[in-house]
Amino acid sequence: MNREQYQADVERAINERIGYLNSQIDMLSFSSKYRDRVKRDNIKEERNGLTEFIGLVHNQNLSQSEAWGY
């Protein structure tokens, strides 16, 4: 597997995870239970971290080799 294909596969997996997290956030948004609010906040934190990572790669704030661990 070449580097570009690896990057595309990782980015696709991250975007799929972000989509899943967004659906979980939507589902928990209707709950008023404290436990669900905490869970929703934790999910938002994970989603925001993944979104920031993707943004750094696209904006070239990190070199491709640093961002992908090469």
Q: What's the number of extended β-strand segments?
A: 0
How far the N terminus sits from the C terminus, by CA atoms, comes to: 14 Å
What integer value in Å does the Rg equal?
15 Å
Q: Estimate the mean pLDDT confidence.
A: 84
Give the helices and strands, then pairings.
Layout (H helix, E strand, L loop, with lengths): L2 H26 L5 H26 L4 H5 L2
Helix pairs in contact: 1-2
What are the key terms here?
single chain, 3 helices
Give a quick precis of the structure:
The protein contains three helices and no strands. With 70 residues, it is an all-alpha fold.
Description:
This protein has 70 residues and is mainly α. It is elongated, with a radius of gyration of 15 Å. α1 packs antiparallel against α2. The model has no long low-confidence stretch (mean pLDDT 84). It is built from 3 helices and no strands. It has one domain.
